[in-house]
Specification:
This protein is 23% helix and 25% strand. The chain is α+β, with helices and mostly antiparallel strands. Helix 4 (216-228) packs across helix 6. The model has no long low-confidence stretch (mean pLDDT 95). Bound molecules: succinic acid and cobalt (II) ion.
Length: 390
């Protein structure tokens, strides 16, 4: 990936990763023209009212714009009555509702899929914002409609103080060193911790392509659950060799070390650790967005081979793979995925974001069985191929 990328303003992926990723902001004018007008403000309003959508309506009081309120989904029409002058509507995971938006993740082939969070869209009228703040994750802010003025300030961290008594983690001040207006198609990369403040210049939609890292606590939690579920670990340990007596009230450092070593031994010498992490990383962020599939049989599938369909990932699902003892292991939506060896290479391509023409290449009983299973679990989708649907 050493060619210059338009999405990075002509930087190569390597240059971006070395100089900017997790370090400093990057503004690219007209980086993603494809995003322009995919959604309009009214679409975002309508989406926010749908069942299962995760949305927040943020308002600033007319009399005191420093007084904020947040209403989280489910949102109803009544929430949009008697609106103040300044407000913002945030809708999460819009990539699960629009294939056109989901396809735009392909613009970031230099960041692995497991780092992806979702695409959020914000809608605000002139003056609307979510306040001065920072996030703990990497975000590419892309202007989709209207214009937004972005200011960037100092780096923040866990010790940064917030404005007290507000429902948002707002910063009392920002030392602005960047001040630009973004037009449709423009992109601004903001690294974790960098304070930012985006104010709508007119009715505007801004998309946030978020990339999140897991935290240690959630991994510990998952790892410990995973081990705790293993039947063979539920038997009491053998006692430490007792060649000396000690005070009966004491648990000796030797005894503690023995117990700790038994836990560490398991952590180090079994695959459960890796499996627990794969299960966590492959979990869908919004499982309620995974559609219920229409049950399909292998015979139905062989009947539509070569009929202009293509196989691709269901945007709300998450499919990852890893190498274990030189073998590809697939995980989808938190579960290990057992498939035939014959289908491995194709499934790897699908997990890497490729769409594959559904043709004779898949005409094997065991492959069709794998595909039927993954379609029935809504991990994969079969769509009319792009050329055919135009
Ligand atoms: C916005 O689009 O208004 C908020 C996005 C962000 O600041 O992360
Ligand atoms: Co932010």
């Amino acid at each position: 990936m050493s060619e210059p990328l338009a999405i990075l303003g002509g930087l190569t992926a390597e240059q971006f990763l070395t100089e900017y990723w997790q370090k400093k902001p990057l503004l690219v004018r007209n980086a993603m023209s494809e995003i322009v007008d995919i959604l309009e403000p009214n679409d975002v309003m309508e989406l926010a009212l749908e069942d299962n959508v995760t949305a927040r309506l943020i308002k600033q009081k007319d009399r005191n714009p420093n007084q904020w309120s947040v209403k989280s989904s489910p949102l109803i029409k009544g929430d949009f009555q008697k609106m103040p002058k300044l407000w913002t509507l945030l809708v999460q995971a819009v990539d699960h509702y629009s294939f056109d938006l989901a396809a735009l993740w392909k613009k970031f082939p230099f960041i692995p899929q497991w780092r992806r969070d979702d695409i959020m869209v914000s809608y605000a009228p002139k003056g609307g914002s979510v306040g001065q703040h920072f996030d703990f994750y990497d975000v590419f802010l892309v202007q989709g409609y209207g214009q937004r003025r972005w200011q960037l300030g100092q780096m923040c961290d866990e010790s940064t103080k917030f404005v007290p008594n507000q429902p948002l983690r707002l910063l009392p001040e920002m030392n602005v060193h960047f001040d630009e207006i973004l037009a449709p198609g423009d992109l601004l990369y903001v690294p974790p911790g960098l304070s930012h403040y985006g104010v709508a210049e007119d009715d505007c939609l801004t998309y946030s392509f978020g990339f999140r890292m897991p935290n240690v606590a959630s991994m510990m939690d998952r790892v410990s659950d995973y081990f705790a579920d293993q039947q063979n670990l539920k038997n009491p340990l053998l006692d430490i060799i007792r060649d000396q007596t000690s005070q009966i009230g004491e648990i000796t450092t030797n005894e503690l070390a023995y117990l700790k070593a038994k836990v560490l031994e398991q952590l180090q010498h079994s695959n459960h650790f890796e499996h627990a992490l794969m299960s966590l990383m492959s979990e869908a962020k919004y499982p309620e967005n995974i559609p219920e599939a229409d049950e399909i049989e292998t015979e139905d599938l062989s009947a539509v081979l070569d009929s202009g369909y293509e196989l691709c990932l269901e945007p709300a699902s998450r499919l990852l793979y890893t190498l274990e003892d030189n073998q590809l292991l697939f995980w989808a939506n938190g579960e290990a995925c057992c498939i035939s060896e014959a289908f491995e290479n194709s499934l790897k391509k699908l997990a890497d974001g490729e769409s594959l023409a559904f043709d004779q290449h898949f005409n094997h009983e065991e492959i069709l069985q794998d595909i039927a299973q993954l379609l029935n679990e809504s991990i994969l989708m079969l769509l009319p191929s792009a050329e055919d649907s135009e």
